[in-house]
Specification:
This protein is α+β, with helices and mostly antiparallel strands. The chain is built from 2 helices and 5 strands. The N and C termini lie far apart (about 30 Å). The structure holds adenosine monophosphate (AMP) and zinc ion. Adenosine monophosphate binds next to loops.
């Protein structure tokens, strides 16, 4: 756990969240400011500031993050019409919380390219 990390505090239960899924490695919860009818964040319990802070030791963890996201997307009924995963990275990437998180967005047709 990193000091002063919002998502570490959510994992620790110090800040409330609307949980979707949890196991030893990952935690998923509803985004507080949804950008789509379904907007879930899935995060590693290990504090990584962003995806580029990961290395070969995190290979299994990153794979699990994606596979659990697939499971959540299916359980949320997004498989048929599709969905989008987003990992904002750094300031130009629009990252605002510096604990790696994968956005799962679905429930409407999403625009491309992003702004
Ligand atoms: P990003 O801009 O990629 O860093 O995304 C951060 C996301 O975290 C945003 O979509 C926020 O709405 C979301 N967020 C911020 N605080 C909370 C919170 N307390 N609970 C759930 N989601 C949050
Ligand atoms: Zn953290």
């Amino acid at each position: 756990m990193a000091d002063d990390c919002l998502f570490c505090k959510i994992i620790a239960g110090e800040i409330p969240s609307n949980k979707v899924y949890s196991d030893d490695d990952v935690y998923a919860f509803h985004d507080i400011n949804p950008a789509a009818p379904t907007h879930i964040l899935i995060i590693p319990k290990k504090h990584l500031t962003d995806v580029s802070a990961s290395d070969a030791n995190d290979q299994a963890l990153l794979g699990k993050l994606l596979l659990k996201a697939n499971q959540i997307a299916a359980e949320q009924g997004l498989s048929e019409d599709g969905f989008r995963y987003v990992i904002n990275t750094g300031s130009d990437g629009g990252q605002t919380v510096y604990h790696l998180h994968l956005h799962i967005l679905g429930g409407r047709a999403l625009n491309w390219p992003p702004g």
